[in-house]
């Protein structure tokens, strides 16, 4: 073959490759615009089934106006990237809606009608260094004057973007909100401090109450109620005060007549006692129970017992300079292993943070079905609630736990046929009930699951646990809906090092008793040494002591040094396995991965060289 045809062949090959490249890009742009491959563990970039159901069930068109200051925000990379994700997601919603979602994008440039529309709709502008304003929000509307607004897409809520968009569309597509009645001694609608704090501008409603109020027609039932208001679809009972017989009867009849209920009782409600003192006691009781109703529903609950769990204990700060962090077994951090994976209320939960929880159990001869939804680990036992209230020292509570191997139900679904708790006077004698009961009210406390931040004058809640999701999922399930369930927990807000937690729990259980014994010996030795030295000072120093006393002092000093050495060894053992794991991970990241890359490069170079040698040989 002559050189010229070779060059012609090479040119033809390049031209053909270019034509194929352009053709593939045109085809991909035409048919694969919405195609994508999601390799994330939780399907973070794939629309959830609930979202698809909400879109598919739209009966009337919904208009979404996406306000974004494109030119002003172009210089801020983080905002621009987030805006691109919001725009892409809204585009997916519109593409799936078959024309039912009308998407409009508006750039509210300064001093224009679009900017006036943005502010009038309730959007919040973010000021920039140059004095310009960035609008980055959404206004949704339906054909019956319904309007929903996201004032500003706060970065802290980026992982809940799909839930925020889907719930907005859900509210617009469901003009008549289900009615939720709430019976509670907790200041849910005013926050800690009650009405007085609210009147002083210091009150902040519980985040879970605000979430419920957005989706449901929520009403707080007054403490002196005599009947459940008509129209209530779901009754939420959250750490109730003392209820009289007429009030218990009203709840009994509501449930037996087909009403759904979500109940929170507690052996020790820390949220109820927050801020209380002997001079200003809390208006809420320290514990709550509904024994008469529970007996009729087939539920057992001991309001005097708290679950202590070694494996699920939360890490807390303590006033100990030697060990400033300790595992507190009365505060539990629960993960997927502790949730019922089959029930829709708990199937998608990832983490819950609870405090001083109680234990539920089914009663013998009950006609209802008791299904545990949330349970402790098998490294738990029951502690006296009074001891937990009076002695909050983590090491003392940990020492009192004798694991039984039993997993204690903390929340359960109670369903099936039940009889009235008032057989002599009841109008409805029996019925099929559907009730969810949880033996904890601190799940509602903002401290355990959400960070509330002020963003551009608006309160933005950024969850770090799924406490709120459990409450909202339970209410939604009890109303008979379920499209939003799972959207609230699609992305893990907290990814704990579970291996490290397990190592810490085992080490704590193994070495704590030895550490306490050494610490007590150290204290006794120091006290005895101090007494001897004080006695020597009273007699003119150690010279005034007998040889036996001086020998005893020297002996105690040696014991002091030996005990401190042993104590350091024990404290080192507490971290030995964790440090070993850290060393392995450090080696993998620092040395092993680069080494493997280098070996791969060397092998690849050798293979290429061998091919080149073979080609020359031919």
Secondary structure layout plus pairing:
Layout: H1 3-31, H2 49-56, E1 62-68, H3 70-73, H4 77-96, E2 101-106, H5 113-120, E3 125-127, E4 133-141, E5 147-150, H6 161-173, E6 179-184, H7 194-199, H8 207-215, E7 217-220, E8 234-238, H9 245-256, E9 260-264, H10 291-297, E10 299-301, E11 305-309, E12 313-317, E13 325-335, E14 351-355, E15 360-362, E16 369-375, E17 380-384, H11 385-390, H12 394-400, E18 409-419, E19 430-438, E20 450-455, E21 458-463, H13 467-479, H14 498-538, H15 547-617
Parallel strand pairs: 1-2, 6-7, 6-8, 8-9, 9-19
Antiparallel strand pairs: 1-4, 3-4, 4-5, 10-15, 11-17, 12-13, 13-14, 16-18, 18-19, 20-21
Q: What is the percentage of strand-forming residues?
A: 15-25%
Number of beta-strand segments: 21
User: By helix and strand content, what is the structural category?
Assistant: alpha/beta
**Rg, nearest Å:** 32 Å
Report the total helices.
15
Q: What is CATH's topology name of the largest domain? A: Rossmann fold
Q: Low-confidence stretches at least 5 residues in length (pLDDT < 50)?
A: none
Main sheet strand line-up: 7-6-8-9-19-18-16
- Straight-line distance between termini: 17 Å
- Whole-number mean pLDDT: 83
Helix content: 40-55%
Total domains, how many?
4
Bulk shape: globular
> Any idea of the CATH class of the largest domain?
Alpha Beta
Provide a descriptive summary of the structure in words:
The structure is a single chain. The protein is of the alpha/beta class. It has 4 domains: 1-33; 49-150, 3-Layer(aba) Sandwich (Glutaredoxin); 176-303 and 357-376 and 406-495, Rossmann fold, CATH 3.40.50; 503-617. 41% of the residues lie in helices and 20% in strands. It contains 15 helices and 21 strands. Strands 7-6-8-9-19-18-16 form a 7-stranded mixed beta sheet. Helix 2 runs parallel beside helix 6 (161-173), helix 8 (207-215) packs parallel to helix 13 (467-479) and helix 14 (498-538) runs antiparallel to helix 15. The longest helix is centred in the last third of the chain and has 71 residues, at 547-617. The mean pLDDT is 83.
């Amino acid at each position: 073959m002559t050189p010229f045809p070779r060059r012609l062949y090479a040119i033809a090959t390049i031209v053909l490759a270019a034509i194929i490249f352009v053709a593939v890009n045109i085809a991909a742009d035409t048919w694969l615009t919405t195609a994508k491959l999601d390799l994330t563990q939780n399907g973070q970039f794939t629309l959830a089934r609930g979202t698809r159901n909400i879109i598919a069930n739209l009966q009337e068109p919904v208009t979404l106006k996406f306000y974004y200051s494109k030119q002003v925000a172009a210089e801020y990379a983080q905002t621009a990237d987030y805006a691109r994700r919001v725009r892409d997601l809204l585009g997916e919603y519109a593409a799936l809606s078959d024309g039912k979602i009308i998407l409009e994008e508006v750039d509210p440039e300064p001093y224009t009608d679009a900017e006036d529309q943005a502010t009038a709709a309730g959007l919040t502008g973010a000021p920039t260094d140059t004095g310009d304003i960035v609008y980055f929000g959404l206004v949704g509307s339906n054909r019956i004057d319904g309007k929903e607004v996201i004032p500003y897409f706060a970065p802290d809520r980026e992982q809940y973007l799909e839930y925020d968009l889907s719930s907005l569309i859900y509210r617009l597509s469901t003009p008549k909100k289900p009615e939720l009645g709430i019976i509670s001694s907790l200041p849910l609608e005013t926050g800690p401090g009650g009405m007085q704090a609210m009147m002083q501008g210091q009150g902040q409603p519980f985040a879970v109450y605000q979430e419920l109020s957005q989706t449901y027609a929520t009403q707080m039932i007054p403490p002196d109620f005599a009947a459940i208001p008509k129209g209530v679809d779901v009754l939420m009972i959250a750490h109730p005060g003392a209820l009289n017989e007429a009030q218990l009867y009203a709840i009994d009849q509501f449930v037996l007549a087909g009403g759904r209920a979500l109940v929170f009782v507690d052996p020790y409600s820390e949220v109820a006692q927050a801020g209380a003192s002997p001079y200003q006691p809390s208006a809420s009781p320290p514990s709550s129970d509904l024994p008469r109703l529970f007996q009729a529903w087939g539920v057992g609950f001991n309001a005097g017992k708290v679950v202590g769990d070694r494996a699920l204990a939360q890490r807390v700060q303590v006033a100990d300079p030697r060990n400033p962090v300790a595992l507190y077994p009365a505060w539990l951090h629960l993960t997927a292993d502790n949730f019922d994976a089959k029930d829709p209320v708990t199937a998608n939960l990832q983490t819950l943070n609870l405090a001083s929880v109680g234990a539920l159990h089914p009663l013998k001869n009950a006609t209802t079905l008791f299904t545990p939804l949330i349970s402790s680990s098998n490294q738990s036992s029951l502690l006296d609630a009074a001891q937990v209230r009076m002695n909050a020292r983590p090491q003392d509570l940990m020492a009192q736990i004798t694991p039984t191997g039993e997993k204690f139900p903390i929340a359960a679904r109670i369903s099936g046929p039940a009889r009235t708790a008032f057989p002599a006077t009841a109008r409805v004698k029996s019925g099929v009930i559907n009730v969810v009961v949880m033996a904890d009210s601190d799940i509602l406390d903002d401290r355990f699951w959400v960070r509330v931040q002020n963003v551009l004058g608006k309160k933005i809640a950024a969850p770090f646990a799924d406490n709120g999701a459990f409450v909202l999922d339970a209410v939604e399930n009890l109303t008979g809906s379920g499209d939003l369930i799972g959207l609230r927990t699609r992305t893990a807000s907290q990814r704990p090092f579970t291996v490290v937690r397990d190592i810490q729990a085992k080490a704590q259980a193994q070495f704590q008793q030895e550490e306490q014994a050494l610490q007590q010996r150290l204290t006794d030795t120091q006290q005895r040494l101090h007494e001897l030295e004080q006695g020597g000072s009273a007699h003119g120093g150690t010279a005034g002591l007998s040889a036996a006393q001086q020998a005893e002092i020297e002996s105690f000093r040696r014991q002091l040094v030996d005990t401190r050495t042993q104590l350091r060894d024990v404290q080192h053992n507490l971290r030995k396995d964790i440090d070993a794991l850290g060393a392995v991970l450090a080696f993998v990241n620092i040395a092993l991965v680069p080494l493997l890359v280098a070996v791969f490069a060397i092998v690849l170079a050798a293979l290429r060289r061998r091919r080149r040698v073979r080609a020359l040989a031919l």
